[in-house]
Design brief:
This protein has helices at 9-18, 25-34, 53-66, 78-87, 114-125, 139-147, 158-165, 169-188, 204-208, 220-229, 231-248; strands spanning 3-7, 39-43, 70-74, 91-94, 130-135, 152-156, 192-196, 213-218. Strands 1-2-3-4-5-6-7-8 form an eight-stranded parallel β-barrel, surrounded by seven helices. The chain is globular, with a radius of gyration of 17 Å. Helix 3 (53-66) links the parallel strand 2 and strand 3. 49% of the residues lie in helices and 16% in strands. The chain is built from eleven helices and eight strands. One of its GO terms (biological process) is pyridoxine biosynthetic process. Catalyzes the complicated ring closure reaction between the two acyclic compounds 1-deoxy-D-xylulose-5-phosphate (DXP) and 3-amino-2-oxopropyl phosphate (1-amino-acetone-3-phosphate or AAP) to form pyridoxine 5'-phosphate (PNP) and inorganic phosphate. It catalyses: 3-amino-2-oxopropyl phosphate + 1-deoxy-D-xylulose 5-phosphate = pyridoxine 5'-phosphate + phosphate + 2 H2O + H(+).
Length: 258
């Protein structure tokens, strides 16, 4: 079964816009888990623009009590590695981060940053965190991810989703082929394969149908859709589309679950 991780960062964005104490990200996490999410993702940025250190503490407690994984997205910095080692999340997903970006733009360059990423990966693994690297579906980046000791790769689906929404059919098909090839290559190296970024109702099924992918992480779209229909309803519809994609295209590989 394909897992769904729900990123609740942008509940905190709304809260911080007014400098108030609500809406609370932990409440969104509770609703998401009750609605069928398999885990919670939160990105603690260096500038603390949305999720805060206090949010990570309460989300960690919630996920432990519910027996669900917390996926801690983070930049590859000593500060973030230290926070993650203290929080001991189920998973730590290393992502590129620039202070001026609106959202994460593109994948981590593991080839160029191999030494720094290998060190962070080794430190995180000492506290039991499963280390995931957010990368482009490029074979060189995937091989480098295995070489530095990551257990998981999360393939960046943003370019595919943008092309599909823009009606750029040929470009979208080419990027989807890269995602399929990357997922198959990663699985052949023994890496668990996740995917995320930019996914909505219109783009989820082709990604969900890739058999080696065992988890999708989706945030901004679900939080936005929740404004109109409620978070449980938004998650239920996404979950239904994901499951339908797997029924229409049954997996032909054995996927490892942690």
């Amino acid at each position: 079964m394909l897992r769904l991780g729900v990123n609740i960062d942008h509940v905190a964005t709304i809260r911080n816009a007014r400098g108030s104490s609500y809406p609370e990200p932990v409440r969104a996490a509770e609703l998401a888990l009750a609605a069928g999410a398999d885990g919670i993702t939160a990105h603690l940025r260096e500038d603390r623009r949305h999720i805060s250190d206090a949010d990570i503490a309460v989300l960690t407690d919630l996920c432990l009590k519910r027996g669900k994984p917390l996926n801690f997205e983070m930049a590859v910095t000593d500060e973030m590695v230290g926070i993650a080692m203290n929080a001991k999340p189920h998973a730590a997903c290393l992502v590129p981060e620039r202070r001026e970006e609106v959202t994460t733009e593109g994948g981590l360059d593991v080839v160029k940053g191999a030494n720094r990423i290998a060190d962070a990966t080794a430190r995180l693994r000492t506290v039991g965190a499963r280390v995931s690297l957010f990368i482009e579906p490029d074979h060189a980046q995937i091989q480098a991810s295995a070489d530095v000791g990551a257990q998981v790769v999360e393939l960046h689906t943003g370019a595919y989703c943008d092309a599909a929404r823009a009606g750029e059919t040929e470009r979208a098909a080419a990027i989807l082929d890269r995602l399929k090839s990357g997922a198959a290559f990663a699985a052949s190296l023994g890496l668990e394969v996740h995917a995320g970024h930019g996914i909505d109702y219109a783009t989820v099924k082709p990604v969900a149908a890739i058999p080696q992918i065992v988890e999708l992480n989706i945030g901004h779209f679900l939080i936005g859709e929740a404004i109109f229909v409620g978070l449980p309803q938004a998650i239920l519809r996404m979950r239904t589309l994901m499951d339908a994609a797997r029924l229409e295209h049954p997996a032909k590989v054995e996927a490892g679950f942690a």
